[in-house]
Amino acid sequence: MPGWRGLSHVLTLGSLLLPPAALRAHDFWIEPSTYAPEVISTVRVGLRVGEEMRGEPVRRDPEKIESFLGRAADGSQAEVVAPAGMEPAGFYRVEVPGTVVLGYRSRRSSIRLDPELFHDYLLAEGLDAVVALRRERGEEDRPGNEVFSRCAKSLLAAGGEGGPGFDHRFGWPLELVPLADPAALAAGDALTILVLHEGRPLAGVLVAARSRTRNTRRLTARSDAEGEVAFTLDDSGPWLVSAVHMVPAPEAVDADWESFWASLTFGLR
Length: 269
Hints:
Elements: H1 8-14, E1 27-32, E2 41-51, E3 54-57, E4 65-71, E5 77-79, E6 90-94, E7 98-106, E8 109-113, H2 115-124, H3 128-137, E9 144-158, E10 174-178, E11 189-197, E12 200-201, E13 206-211, E14 219-222, E15 228-233, E16 237-248, E17 257-268
Parallel strand pairs: 9-17
Antiparallel strand pairs: 1-2, 2-3, 2-6, 4-5, 4-7, 7-9, 8-9, 10-11, 11-12, 11-15, 13-14, 13-16, 16-17
C-alpha cells in the first residue's frame, strides 16, 4: 500500500502474500521530538510509517526526498538536514518564537497490486470514485499499477506560542490546511481542515483523524463542497490527520493511477 513509503519494496515484491487487513490504515507522518520547542533549540524530525500513530522509523533517503524544510513564524525557510540513512531523518533549528510548519514532500514511487488487493485497498481508503471508474472501464480484473507520493506536514509552537503561519500552504498536489491554530485549541474544541488538490478545494475526500492518547479510535469524515471537514478533538496530546486522493496517471508516467498521500501532525493542549 502506498502508505508504506518506507516499505514499498516489500509491497512490490511480496504484496500478493499479504491479506487485505495488512494493507489498511498504514499512515506516513512527521513526528517531531517536541511540538513545543524552546527558542534557540534543535528539533529532531522523525518520519514514521505505521498504524494508530505507532509507527516504525523511516531513515533519511535523499533519493526519495523532493523537499524537506521548515518555515518559521517570520516567513523564513530552512532545510531539515541530516546525513543519508540517519534516524531521525532530519534536524531543524528553532530561531524565533511562533508557528513552525515542517514539510516533507517525496518523489514518486511505484507499486503493483493484484486486482483483489487493489480493490480492497481502494475501499479501505475511501477511494470509491476509482472503484466506480474501474468498474465502468471493465478493469476490475486488472492489477493496480500505481505511482504515489507523500505530502506530510507538522505544526510546532516554538517558545510555546502559535500564531500566524499555521495555515501556510506549500503548494503540493494534496495538502491539509488547518483553518484554526491548533496551538490555540484545547481538548474538546473543533478543528476544520481544508483539503486542497493542486491548490483548489477538493470535495468528497475521506479524511481521518486520530489522537495518540486514544489511538484505537479513528475519526473519519468526507470533505464537503468547499473541501472542508471538521473534527472534535476530544483528547490532548499529539494528533494525526490524513487523507488520500487518486487520479488517472499522466500519460508520461508508466502507471495507470497516481495517488497523493497527505498528513498533518500537531500537539493539542
